[in-house]
Specification:
The protein contains 7 helices and no strands. With 137 residues, it is an all-alpha fold. InterPro entries: Spore_V_AC, SpoVA. This is Stage V sporulation protein AC.
Length: 137
Amino acid sequence: MAKQVEPKPRILLDCTKAFFVGGAICTIGQFIDKYISTLGLPDEQVKTIVSIIMIFLGALLTGIGIYDKIAQFGGAGTVVPITGFSNAIVSPAIEFKKEGFVFGVAAKMFTIAGPVLVYGIGSSVIIGIVYYIISLF
């Protein structure tokens, strides 16, 4: 009975939306990159500034409620770019701010992004050690 009333998945439509929303976010990042490159800064500084701007925009749009609407439409397309990481940090902080800054915001801020950071940093350390050992030979 549950299968009969369950809505049919729209995989192709969802993938298409995710592709275009993720692509739009990355295109905005490329426009910012091209604009900041015209200032004559070194490439490393330009990449850092673009990352900071994209993280800020993700946090700002999350704070005013727009990023969630974009995510409802674009699905996984909003998770992959760096703005998705910003959203993953800011959303729990906003949700738990009524519990106070220490036990709410500070304690819950990394509930979603924390495991990603732990496993990302841990796997990069392991890969670095393996790379070092392989480079000895």
